[in-house]
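It would be a great kindness if you could assist me with a short task in structural biology. The matter concerns a single protein, recorded as an amino acid sequence and a row of backbone structure tokens. Could you please explain, in whatever detail you think fit, how the structure tokens follow from the sequence? Thank you for your consideration; the sequence and its tokens are set out here:
___
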Amino acid sequence: FFQSSRSISIRVEHKINISRERKSSIETLANMLSYDVLSEQNANTTNAIIKHFSASEDFLTLSKAEGALILQRDEEDASKLQKGIDIAKGKGVIDPNFVPEEYITVDVLGKTPDQVADEILKRVRGESGSGAVVVLCGLSGTGKVRLQEPIDT
């Protein structure tokens, strides 16, 4: 009977310790991921979520899996787009000898759409001196749509 009692006592103590750790984690999460931050649904929200969960193995595993699915879908879309371009070239709608300009790579990680737009506009203004056509290319979920407004204004 004594051993059972001691065993139960240890389990209860362990559960209390886990509970305190969870409470601390929940409080930290609440501070970083407040209702206000989550309701913004923008780059600040994304960055706060990534920062909070960046040490979580489960989060990293899920991120890699979701990233692989996005890359797969984007590759499928690129293949379909290329088929359409080839058809348009065959019909003479697009010049078959057209060579697009080289892409300029912009790292968006940890930046707000306004910061990325500023970086793009500095390059465009520096190279053209005036207005220019900007074509945004990138993987799904990298914020192309959110860049439209700050670049357009």
About this structure: Confidence is low (pLDDT under 50) at residues 1-18. The radius of gyration is 25 Å. Residues 90 and 96 are 8 Å apart (CA to CA). The helical segments are 2-32, 35-40, 43-53, 57-90, 113-128, 144-152.
